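Retry 2 of 3 after timeout on previous attempt. Resubmitting structure tokens to design endpoint.
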């Protein structure tokens, strides 16, 4: 059973969208369970001026993403680093035990976005995110959906059978 706060953030998610000129990007997820989360931050004077998310996953994952962006927006980088999976779950007035991993994804994605921002600011070379990795097959030479095991055409972004997003490794 979800709290009213979770349902509100699921039905009316805040800060949804991709940010093309982000100062930091964090991507986390597990294609096997179906939750994929991207967090984008825009930073000005070491403060998160804007934050967006794109999440493919369950209602709890969407609610976590929405709440996380509300919590981080306007905070300094140092204060945003203090946002934890526990604080996100508490702000949502709790999550069912089997959905607590969603709050981990949110906090992890934010911390990766902050690290990406700090690396860029320090002039460190970014390692490509999973989305930028080469196309890889995990089951032989054919493209197969990791969710429903349907044959796929190379280069598609969504499975035509189950509708799930396809990453580069499948």
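Retry 2 succeeded. Sequence:
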């Amino acid at each position: 059973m979800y709290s009213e706060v979770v349902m509100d953030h699921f039905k009316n998610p805040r800060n949804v969208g991709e940010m093309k000129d982000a100062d930091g990007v964090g991507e986390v997820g597990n294609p096997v369970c179906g939750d994929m989360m991207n967090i984008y931050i825009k930073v000005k004077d070491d403060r998160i001026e804007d934050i967006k998310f794109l999440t493919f996953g369950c209602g709890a994952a969407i609610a976590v993403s929405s709440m996380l962006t509300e919590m981080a927006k306007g905070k300094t980088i140092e204060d945003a680093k203090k946002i934890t999976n526990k604080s996100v779950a508490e702000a949502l007035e709790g999550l069912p035990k089997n959905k607590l991993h969603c709050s981990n994804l949110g906090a992890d994605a934010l911390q990766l976005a902050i690290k990406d921002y700090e690396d860029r600011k320090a002039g460190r070379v970014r390692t490509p995110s999973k989305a930028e990795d080469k196309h890889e097959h995990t089951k032989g030479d054919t493209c197969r959906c990791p969710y429903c095991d349907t044959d796929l055409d190379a280069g598609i972004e969504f499975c035509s059978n189950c509708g799930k997003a396809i990453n580069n490794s499948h």
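Attempt log closed. The first helix runs from residue 4 to 11.
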